[in-house]
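Changelog note: in this version the structure field was regenerated for every chain. One regenerated record is shown below for reference.
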Amino acid sequence: MDYQYELDARGLKAPIPVLRLKRAMAQMKPGEVLCLIVDDAHCRPDVQAFAHHARQKLVAQDINAGESRYYLEKN
């Protein structure tokens, strides 16, 4: 997956990664993609809810036992 920005939120617990995601996406231009990397399994529903409510496109998810990557496109 191609992306322009990477937000490494490993080591942070929910909801901090989503708060940082919101701040980062506010700086982006429409059509740009950000990769959010987290290692807290509890972030999954928060990221999905953020994408839905903020009307951003969750392009892909790569969920593993140790870490997960979420790719969000700015609308």
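Spot check on this record: The CA atoms of residues 56 and 74 lie 6 Å apart. DSSP finds two helices and four strands in the chain.
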